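input
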Amino acid sequence: MSVLEMKVPSPGESISEVEIAEWMVEDGDYVEKDQTIAEVDSDKATLELPAEEAGIITLKAEMGDVVAVGQVVCLIDTSAAKPEGGKSPAKASPKSSTPSPGPVSSTPKNEKSYASGHPSVAAKKIIVENNIQAEHIEGSGKGGRITKQDILQLLASLPEEGNRKSEIRKLSMLRRKIASRLVTVKNETAMLTTFNEVDMKPIMDLRAKYKDAFKEKYGVGLGFMSFFTYACTVALKEFPTVNSMIDGDHMISYNFNDVGIAVSTEKGLMVPVLRNADEMNLLEIESKIKELAVKARDGKISIEEITGGTFTITNGGVFGSMLSTPIINPPQSAILGMHNIVQRPVAIDGKVEIRPIMYVALSYDHRIIDGKDSVGFLVKVKEVLENPEEMVFKGKDPKKILMNY
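output
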């Protein structure tokens, strides 16, 4: 028998351990080479773990276990033949820990086996979350294994005790790291927030005129985020301290803008980074944001794509937020918060008009960014957004630029 030890690969520099978020296979399954067998959480992202070879798998870690980089988490018997029909062969009897080298007959439906009374990975998760006593549950799976459906049916049959319920879940490693970082920022920075408002009518008029043709030609929408990202890169060039970081007694400033765009995922908030955003046009910004957001939500983003930003933009407006004080994304020194767009009465040339207004917020580290620069930064962002034909398109026909990238 030839057995391959699968060890946890290094997800990136400075990461020494990960957490088994979910096993995508069960003990004794036959797996194909490069098949995703597990999802692992680091303190930065959720990553997929592919099988290094084909064979029968033996799990050496439980879901929720924190394991060191380089630790063996499963074994793959590469000498095992693929079972007929693509199904996993039954495991060996308890007297032997050696998997069968080839296909074997299935256990009869009513006959008990090694699996009798043992929950599948998915079933075990629900059992733990709901504090279920599983000893007397009759499993309907192969060899009497308790399946996820068995547990769901059990929960559905239990009498409700009013509407009062509680649930205890362990926070993922990513969520725990986010919590720790946010508390650190609040405790170790002199964070302050300044506000302004932006009349979104010029941007909205542009989008209404060109967004359909833009999407038809390029396959991506002409969204607000590209305009805000562009406006921020203009402002960062004029106010470089906002694009700086503090390191002990020193301030590190950058002549490039690596802008992080906060993305909400099932695992928590992630911030993919647009490298050299100051060199991108609106199409490049939109395309890159879409690419990184899809990767983040699908759990396929790399560590390199979510580290190293110099400034961050977060958009609470997509969830209906009117106003907020975003928390700085360390080790950066500033973050821009976008909010929802609301029709509000404003004074235009001495007359009251109804305009689509967005409140914007800049949270910044007052240790290195003074009020003059923080306020000036927001004023510049406002100026670019309220005068796009002049500030974004440089007085040229927007249609010619947008449709000829």
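quick obs: Confidence is low (pLDDT under 50) at residues 88-115.
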